[in-house]
Amino acid sequence: MASFLRRLATSIDALNEWIGRTVAWLTLGMVVVTFLVVVLRYGFDVGWIAMQESVTYMHALVFMAGSAYTLKHNEHVRVDIFYRELGPIAKAWVNLIGTLVLLLPASGYVLWISWDYVVSAWALLEGSREAGGLPLVFLLKSFIPLLAGTLVLQGLALAADSLLAILGHAKR
C-alpha cells in the first residue's frame, strides 16, 4: 500500500511540476506583450484589443494552471497560527484533514459547478465581447475545470504524503 501511495503521489507531483514550469513561461510573455502594448500605444498611437486581452488570458492561465504547482511547493496562502511550530506528524495530520475537509470538497464543487458553464461556452464558441478581441473565451473558460482537476490531483498527492508520514514512512 505504501509503495502504491508513493508512486501515485510521485506521478501527480511530476505532472503538476511539468504544468507549473511550462505555464511559468507565460509570465515572460505577459511582460513582453505588456511592454509592446505600452510602446505601441504611447509611442505610435496604435493599439489592438486582442493584444491587450492576451495579457489577461496569459495571467488567467498562469493562475489557473499554476495553482496545483503552488500547492505542491507549499507556497499557497496559509493562515498559519500554530502550523509552523508543529512537528512533522502533527503537520501531516493538519495537511490530511485540511485536504479531505476543505481542498477536495471545494475543488470538487468548482469542477461540478463549472461544467455547464464551460459546455455552454463551447456550444457558442464564445468569443470576446469587444470588437477586435480574441475569439477564444471558450478555451479560456476550459481552464476552470482544469484548475479544479489539478488541485484535486495535487490534493490526493498531499493526502498520500501525509498518510505516509503519519504511518511512519519516510518522505519521498
Any idea what the radius of gyration is?
20 Å
Give the strand tally.
0
* Mean pLDDT metric: 92
Which stretches of 5+ consecutive residues score pLDDT under 50? none
Number of contiguous helices:
6
Structural class: mainly alpha
Helix-residue proportion = over 70%
What proportion of the residues form beta strands (DSSP E)?
A: under 5%
**What form results from the Cα inertia axes?**
elongated
Q: Termini separation (Å)?
A: 15 Å
* H/E topology pattern: HHHHHH
Question: How many separate domains make up the residues?
Answer: 1
How would you characterize the largest beta sheet?
none
Topology (elements, then pairings):
Blueprint: H1 2-23, H2 25-44, H3 49-72, H4 88-124, H5 137-141, H6 143-166
Helix pairs in contact: 1-3, 1-6, 2-3, 3-6, 4-6
